[in-house]
Specification:
Helix content is about 35%, strand content about 25%. A six-stranded mixed sheet has the order 6-7-8-3-9-10, with helices on both faces. It has a six-stranded mixed sheet with strand order 16-19-20-13-21-22, with helices on both faces.
Amino acid sequence: MPNTPFAEMQGISKSFSGNQVLKSVNFSVDKGEVHALVGENGAGKSTLIKILTGIHKRDEGAVRINGKEVHFSHPKEAEQQGIMVIHQELNIIPHLTVTENMFLGKNIAYGKTGILNTKEMRKQCKANLERLGVSTIDPDDIAGDLSVGKQQMIEIARAVSTNAELIVMDEPTAALTDREIDSLFEVIQSLRKNGVAVIYISHRMEEIFRICDRITVLRDGEYIGTKNVTDVDFDGIVKMMVGRELGERFPERDYTGGDVIFEVKSLARKGLFDDISFSVKEGEILGVAGLMGAGRSEIMETIFGYTHKQNGSIHLNGKELPIKHPSDAIKAGIGFITEDRKSKGLLTDFSIGDNISLTNMKSVSSNGIISANKEHRLIAELMDRLKVKATGATQEAKALSGGNQQKVVIAKWLGIEPKLLILDEPTRGVDVGAKKEIYNIMNELTKNGVAIIMVSSDLPEVLGVSDRIMVIYEGRIANIFDRDQADQENIMTAAAGGE
């Protein structure tokens, strides 16, 4: 197919409150092309897409659709021009069914009666999900009861079911299993053959080189360049993104073993997991792998007190912990970085400083009185330590990029100086440079004796940073591998229920 641009953006500039976030950026995507848009968190990717789709107005520059300049003032206008967006932060309405979410704003009625044809909507919903290879989601399921991964599949199915000419995918695979990713890529190939343009935003370089045709790199709000995937490699793109050589992807681990600091015995929740027994040693990183729905997050949420265990016991430093609420876990020295930062990890309407302070009241106050100096010092220290890109501590968390939001979540738990830190998908939606920073923080914590449990769907990450790897299959421990025993094949075999 000849290169025919569907969307072109030229000389796009944008400032917020005097802070320039885009500086004369150029970008285009051709019909039938999968074009990756990459850059570190805060590089300006999301702002550029929001200008394309009418959420923000540009200060300077031109946007053309099919060669004609447009000025969208609302996302609905962009949709009418054939542009759909799958957002990184899910737009699912939790109390509605899967079908109701999929047909939100475009219900099917019986003729002109206005009476909803729920049977037809349910049928089309099922067909849309099956197109993505998803058979485990019932159209009548309440969306909020589903895992983050399944909610993501609903968003994807909703977008590809339209007659879109351009689909923007912002971290579409962050919560998906390998099988779901394969199904999504088959759909993307089908879209490409039908002339649909795709803008693919991801921090997973393996995926970009597998599915994309071209890559455009932004850095600090500036256009760095566009490369054909066949003309560049992983290191070349990373250097364009960060402006320097990144070095080894995963930092070296020199863990030599320690005493058991944390132990779980026969933990169970009916219908979710059963007979979960494992231990973590002082200074150790225990990686937790498994397919979506295996029960990994549910186990961690029960340990932390989000939900109540039905059987079993939890021990820290040899003492059984009566955890009935997250406050009990925090008091004992356990921190939990949840996979769902938007609803559980952050108060998005609060400032960065408030988010960090709320978990650390004990260390910034005495006799119930907050010391402003202690509070400001702690916030500044943690923001600097995690290299949070923001206008300042008073900036609202919701105004940050996804990766910087994740850094704030991590920062608030570092302040409590935890004995055990549970990380559930800690680098989801985080760029390669920030990932390395998070891995270095994990190493620094373990050198100080902190035990870490890290749940991750990114197998290279699990293999790259863990000292041991626990694999969960259908709510049970399938195997626990030492670092030198583990590879992608035996982890995936255990995760799929094989011997």
